[in-house]
Specification:
The protein is mostly helical and about 350 residues long. It has three domains: about 80 residues, no CATH class; about 90 residues, no CATH class; about 70 residues, no CATH class. It contains 15 helices and two strands. It has a two-stranded antiparallel ribbon with strand order 1-2. Helix 11 packs antiparallel against helix 12, helix 11 crosses helix 13 and helix 13 crosses helix 14. The longest helix is centred in the first third of the chain and has 26 residues. The radius of gyration is 33 Å and the shape is elongated. The termini are far apart.
């Protein structure tokens, strides 16, 4: 009887201990804790531009730079979204427009902006294709028409679309020729006839790499801009933005180009003829260019200019590109133009 009671007590005690152990583990109060490398909060001094004794590339790439292997397109066991977004993608909170604790220019350029060194044309230790494409080049996946986890509007606008302020006419902080050509203009190397795959593609530099598929189709789609597909989206001119840009004139945008000063009939005719390529057969010309020239004259001057240009167009089949012939055919109209005055 005593033996039976002893065995029963042993079994009940063992069962209770096992149950307690399972409950404790389930509640997280006991049992091993697995730390994910790189996910621990960074040291308080992280961000002072000094790689301290308790800092490393894993817990503070902002001061110590990215670890070797970060940027090889493979998210290894020692890498995470906080210390290598170019391989592992950005963390879940990145992209909510708030630069939260643990986020910085090295791991969340979407919320925190680009690092100060970005744009110095040197790919520094704290930069990579995901955080500073202008210095480090485009990520390999940029241009596949999919906005991957490692891409954003700064690093790959061709896949993710341009950032919100791009297109307002002002080249602001965080914008550059690679991620916002509409505001900042094309990069210096664009136009040299060589499509450099490291930092150019059809979106960044159509002049060297050709236009992207779908351009032109008559529709300025979400992935196109005035810089990547002028045929669909028009020119990158904004009034006012303190720049007298393509197709802007004093008549259209005096805030950028200054107030118009009426000019003489002969000056307008000279301006208009510069809009006509007489070397082509038949001659090619820009109606917009001609109208911008004409708009600079007063009412009487515009009337006489109209007479000269009408005569010149009529004479083109006979004279072709011979400007002297055109002058001779339109001698009376030119004489009236020379005598035109503005009654102001």
């Amino acid at each position: 009887m005593a033996l039976a009671q002893t065995l029963r007590s042993f079994v009940l005690g063992t069962t209770a201990l096992v149950a307690f152990g399972l409950a404790s583990t389930a509640c997280g109060r006991s049992g091993p804790t697995i730390d994910t490398p790189g996910e621990q909060p960074p040291p308080e001094e992280c961000g002072n531009n000094v790689c301290g004794s308790d800092e490393s590339c894993q817990n503070c790439p902002l001061d110590c730079g990215f670890c070797d292997g970060c940027g090889d397109a493979s998210c290894s066991s020692s890498e995470s979204c906080s210390n290598c977004p170019s391989d592992c993608g950005v963390c879940d909170t990145c992209g909510n427009t708030t630069c939260e604790e643990g986020e910085n220019c090295a791991n969340c350029v979407q919320d925190c902006g680009q690092c100060e060194s970005c744009g110095n044309l040197s790919c520094d230790a704290v930069e990579n294709c995901a955080t500073c494409a202008i210095d480090c080049g485009l990520c390999p996946s940029c241009g596949n028409d999919v906005c991957d986890d490692v891409e954003n509007c700064n690093s790959c606008p061709s896949d993710c679309g341009v950032c919100q302020n791009c297109g307002n006419g002002f080249c602001e902080t965080g914008e550059d020729c690679q991620n916002c050509a509409p505001d900042c203009g094309v990069c210096e190397s664009c136009g040299n006839g060589v499509c450099n795959p490291n930092n150019e593609n059809c979106f960044v530099c159509p002049a060297d790499c050709g236009v992207c598929p779908g351009c032109p189709d008559g529709i300025c789609s979400g992935g196109e801009t005035c810089a990547s597909c002028q045929q669909d989206c028009g020119v990158c001119s904004v009034c006012p933005n303190n720049q007298c840009e393509d197709f802007e004139t004093c008549a259209i945008c005096p805030a950028d180009c200054g107030e118009c000063q009426p000019i003489t009939c002969f000056e307008i005719v000279t301006c208009a003829f510069q809009c006509i390529d007489l070397e082509q057969n038949p001659p090619a010309f820009s109606i917009t260019c001609v109208s911008n020239c004409v708009s600079l004259g007063c009412a009487d001057v515009q009337f006489f200019v109209d007479q000269v240009l009408t005569c010149a167009v009529t004479a083109l089949p006979t004279c072709g590109g011979d400007f002297g012939c055109i002058q001779q055919e339109c001698d009376a109209e030119v004489a009236a133009c020379l005598g035109a005055q503005c009654n102001q």
